Amino acid sequence: MRSNLMKLTGMIFLPIALAGCGESGESPGEVSGNVARAQLMGADQTEYGEVIAAQGDGELIININAQNMSPGPHGVHIHSVGKCDGPDFKSAGGHWNPSEKEHGFENAKGAHMGDLFNLDIGKDGTGSLEATIDGGSLKEGEAALLDADGAAFVVHEGPDDLKSDPSGESGGRLACGVFVVGR
Asked: I need a labelling partner for 178 at 20 to 30 A (CA). Which of 43, 54, 90, 123 fits?
């Protein structure tokens, strides 16, 4: 059963994302108004795509566009620290969890705000996921994603079982991208 914490957004996200994607020379990892971007990189500097987080009305809107990944489901999470030191990306800390819940949409004590459903990667190595996080904020309030130590986005090697605390048994960290307050 899908939690009220997150719902798929369909095409609603595209106008919001495009509104923040001007040709102003912004680079991944910067915040422009109400949009933050993070470039997903592997420890070997392989580029794995981009994640965009945008402020909605009382929610965060997340858009993941992945490439160069192995086919199948991959666990994806927002992590609580804005660091992606390789080779294991453990510097990103645990899942973003300002409400102090347990992991997983199928866990009666869950879910973390940073929990997302699995990212399905096709045979061509690409995949995308759009979601909302109710109550999340990009920069304001107790549930601000971009607090003093920032936040990171992590893609795991395997699927998330959506219930095991603390991380869904999703395996090692394949790729990581940092959200940082822009210039």
From this structure: 123
